[in-house]
Amino acid sequence: MSAISFQSVSKIYPVKKGSTGQALHALNNVKFDIQEGEFFGLLGPNGAGKTTLISILAGLTRATSGSISVLGSDVQTDFAAARRKLGVVPQELVFDPFFNVREALRFQSGYFGVKNNDAWIDELLHSLGLTDKANANMRQLSGGMKRRMLVAQALVHKPPVIVLDEPTAGVDVELRQTLWQFIAKLNKQGSTVLLTTHYLEEAEALCNRIAMLKTGNVVALADTSELLKAASSNVFRFKIDSELPKQLADKARITGRIVQFPAHDALEIETYLSAVREAGLVAEDVEIRKADLEDVFLDVMTRGHSSGVQQAMGASV
Amino acid sequence: MNGWQALFYKEVLRFWKVGFQTVAAPVLTSVLYLVIFGHVLEDKVKVYDSVSYTAFLVPGLVMMSILQNAFANSSSSLIQSKIMGNLVFLLLTPLSHWSWFVAYVGSAVIRGLAVGLGVLLATIWFAKLSLVAPVWVIVFALMGAGILGALGLIAGLWAEKFDQLAAFQSFAIMPMTFLSGVFYSIHSLSPFWQTVSHLNPFFYMIDGFRYGFFGVSDVSPWLSLGIVSAALAMVSFVSVYLLKTGYKIRS
To answer: What's the pTM value of the predicted model, to 2 decimals?
Structure first.
């Protein structure tokens, strides 16, 4: 049985009364399955439909057509069973200012009908580094602590399927490591994890399989290793102090002083280097590195389907 | 704890933690009403032959506090959760619409009764109060609080901003409670305004409640019971329906 099955999910937001805009197709016929035990990454730029898809999965939003099931339970027709199997960490940093950390976790357990949950609550607090905040009011927590509290609240009922929507936004590096160690441990113990993140190196490090969304469509779906293999092999990277000529700049990915070109062979690299020299510029800190998930992501997003990625999709869908 | 019990307990604890504001403050307001109106009008207004004006006023103020605070509890809890965004913690749970209804209305009833009891204990010293039929007192207190708790639930779901809720409270709930015969018997009104008062369901809640204390009322308590029951059934139906369809909370 699939942990999560997206069956031709579409979401259309109708035109608001009085406005002249077009109906927004937030999701178009999204269909794929996530198997039990997977650590699955859902990537895409802002507005691609990731959060809409997760909202439909969580029962916060209804699909215009299609359906989603969690371990066989439909999220609409059998919502109670589906929600018991699902632990969702919402993206917004929300909290209830009336209660302290332990109270909030006890109530959350209660909503799921879980009784005498203190042992597990203690374990969650310990694993997420919140033990000494157990009796602190939610208002007194820092942003990073509130974020970890969202994770704890999502896990009080020990859900077999965990959904994390941008869980590391605003969390510092050390705490991010703690969080990932904990989630990875749960994944090893059998939980299925669905993750959306803007930190592509996190997705590359953690996810065994990845789907990419662009304007509501699945544009890539493959094992992470396949995606990386299929990507344009290498990246030629250097730093430069002045502006590149236009014909070169169009092909490059430029971040401040850092310039990166996709490179398949030595000839290509030579061509780029001589073009830089002809322009009277000096390339510093020159290196050639393996393409990473960010390169694949940008490739997919600019070209729709990259040929390599399509091959990878064909191999593993 | 079952799901609904957890939510019910959380809602009760929510207002209890700020009890000074949610229970003590409305009790003080009602005592002030009693002291001022009782002092000014005690010798000038005769409502029922056997009942002093101050004594007449006590049950009305108790019921008014029950109604207003039951409404305030469910409505403000919901709008706060919606605006703070923490309603999502409930939306992600398997709680059914019935659980939501029972928990929100149940906790509103508790808040209403807590304030009502507070007002009664604080004002009972000012007047000689009889208690002819306590069952009526309890029945009308529970049903009145239930109606306003459900109305608060509806208003809390509907409102998107605090000022919309404040408008609902100021322009619907307040006038209907003040014009329901808390401070006067409707027999003292002109026939036209008597007819208007008879259209106000709040009038029956207070009249029936008062009957429990004095054994006299403007209309038969059975008529009041019928109308109040119908009102309770109606607002309950509407609020359960809105919860079931996810009105303004699930898109």
So the answer is: 0.89
A229-316 is a CATH 3.40.50 domain: no
The strand pairing partners of A161, in sequence order, are A86, A192
Conformational region of residue A200, where left means phi above 0, alpha means psi within -120 to 50, and beta covers everything else? alpha
Q: Quote the longest CA-to-CA distance of chain A.
A: 73
Interface mutation vs chain A, best among B5, B13, B86, B247, most A CBs within 10 Å: B86
Strand partners for A10: A65
Residue among B9, B91, B94 minimizing CB distance to A80:
B94
Domain A2-223 has CATH 3.40.50.300: yes
Chain A interface test: which of B16, B21, B76, B89 (most A C-beta within 10 Å)? B89
- Each domain of chain A, given as residue ranges in start order, spans 2-223, 229-316
Q: What are phi and psi of A166, to 5 degrees?
A: 55, 55
DSSP helix, strand, coil percent of chain A (3-state; round to 5): 40, 30, 35
- Residues B177-191 pLDDT 10s: 888 888 888 888 889
ipTM: 0.90
In the numeric block, the tokens 């002249």 are attached to: A20
